[in-house]
Amino acid sequence: MSAHVTPGRELHLNLFVYPGGHHEAAWRHSASDTERLLDIGFYQELARRAEAAAFDGLFFADGPALADNVRYASRFRLEPFTWLSALAAATQRIGLIGTASTTYTEPYNLARLFASLDHLSKGRAGWNIVTTGAPQAAQNFGLDAHPVHAERYDRARDFLEAVTKLWDSWEDDALVADQRTGLFADTDRIHAIDHEGPLLKVRGPLNIPRSPQGRPVYVQAGSSEDGRAFAARYAEAVFTAHQTLASGQEFCADIKKRAARLGRDPGQLLVLPGISPFIASTEEQARRLHEEFNDLTQPAYSLELLHRLLGLRLSEEELDGPVPRELIETRGERGNGSRFQLVLDIVEREEPTVRQLLHRLAGARGHRVIAGTPEQVADQLQQWFEQGAADGFNVMPPWLPGGFELFADQVVPILRERGLFRSAYTGSTLREHYGLTRPASRYAQRPAAAVT
């Protein structure tokens, strides 16, 4: 692989932490530290290890409902603000990206949570914006049914407008704290936002000063048509899933063209596909390691995952037969999802057996799995980075902590030797790590008046 790199451009790496690891059977493997899944010390050690490797950020998923498949997999959810606050206290530089739903939170509460995290971490907060795909969440919030895809995105757009105004509602110099004059805050620089959107009404202002980054970095995960339009307008980093270089290139080009048409600088929008690497000293050993994990999968879990993704209800007796493409319904709510299309593309492109497809999905729920040597993994990351399919990657270790330690110890040094990744931080905030500008408050008006 060529070591050529575009001058001034370096790739970005997040560590995506998932309880037990990203392979669905990771918790069963002897290499996994399963007994520590509820130990904050375990996650603090991972965070410090990622910071020592100069990763841009830690990425943490969440959902407001218990997964139906927790019987067979480590799919419980720790609350992200509690989790990230504990990691903020244990680290100094690494970014802290937490997931929060626009469907099942309110703008004012969410704005307070992220502003507090950004202050207490000295500018390291990022918000992974989701509309929530799990229909079982609805009844946890007093709803009879989960809002449909288009309605969730309508609320998300209104929500983003409201929270952005809230984060801007204090100008940067509104907090004066002048002990001599007794002026604590310049209330002329604190603004009610009076947001009245199609679905939401929020008066404001926020009850906490503007945070170090101005607002958290906007991260978005979703590649449907609605998701792409939303990302092009709001996102500063996009977490996405692609199985092929061509698919990654198409998405990256499309999302940046859309952003440019909206008057945004495409360089201020990073595309970060998920990548889940099985690493060993030879390709054959890496493949065998991957197979070890696949051999621990449980058909009852895997078939339920396939049902949720494609709507297919299959039995264990059908595992070694072909995936019945003719039974997959592409119309309706499920067909709007980007993950549905990704899995359908695998079925149509590769014509796998049911078992083969389940093993493909077991690795990282549709994100790309690589099995190879450290050099082979680095080669593929470099290819996607240099050929316009990625600005960096969300690294999704198949198991923890070893899956991440192998990547940090063996792949990261190769990326550095090739001039692709930093050897040390040059900034202290997540925006600085990502090369993003700090937004000015929309309410900033004039130079501060002298206080006498």
Provide structural commentary.
By secondary structure, the chain is α/β, with parallel strands linked by helices. It has a domain at 12-169 and 203-283 and 368-434: Alpha-Beta Barrel (TIM Barrel). The chain is built from 13 helices and 13 strands. It has helices at residues 40-52, 80-90, 107-120, 149-168, 225-234, 245-261, 283-295, 299-310, 338-350, 354-362, 374-386, 402-417, 430-434, and strands at 12-17, 57-60, 95-101, 125-130, 175-178, 183-185, 195-196, 201-202, 217-221, 237-240, 270-279, 368-372, 392-395. The strands form 3 sheets. Strands 1-2-3-4-9-10-11-13 form an 8-stranded parallel β-barrel, surrounded by 7 helices. α5 packs across α6 (245-261). It starts with 11 loop residues before the first strand and ends in an 18-residue tail after the last helix. The model has no long low-confidence stretch (mean pLDDT 92).
CATH-derived architecture of the domain at 12-169 and 203-283 and 368-434: Alpha-Beta Barrel
| CATH H-tier superfamily of the domain at 12-169 and 203-283 and 368-434 | Luciferase-like domain
Shape call = globular
The profile of the biggest β sheet is:
8 strands, parallel, barrel
Segments where pLDDT lies below 50 for 5+ residues? none
Helix content: 25-40%
CATH topology group of the domain at 12-169 and 203-283 and 368-434: TIM Barrel
Give the rounded overall mean pLDDT: 92
Q: What distance separates the N and C termini?
A: 65 Å
CATH class annotation of the domain at 12-169 and 203-283 and 368-434: Alpha Beta
- Class per helix and strand makeup: alpha/beta
Widest sheet, order of strands? 1-2-3-4-9-10-11-13
The Cα radius of gyration reads 22 Å
Q: Which H/E pattern describes the elements?
A: EHEHEHEHEEEEEHEHEHHHHEHEHH
Number of helices: 13
The percent range for strand residues is: 5-15%
Oligomeric status of the shown chains?
Answer: single chain
Counted beta strands: 13
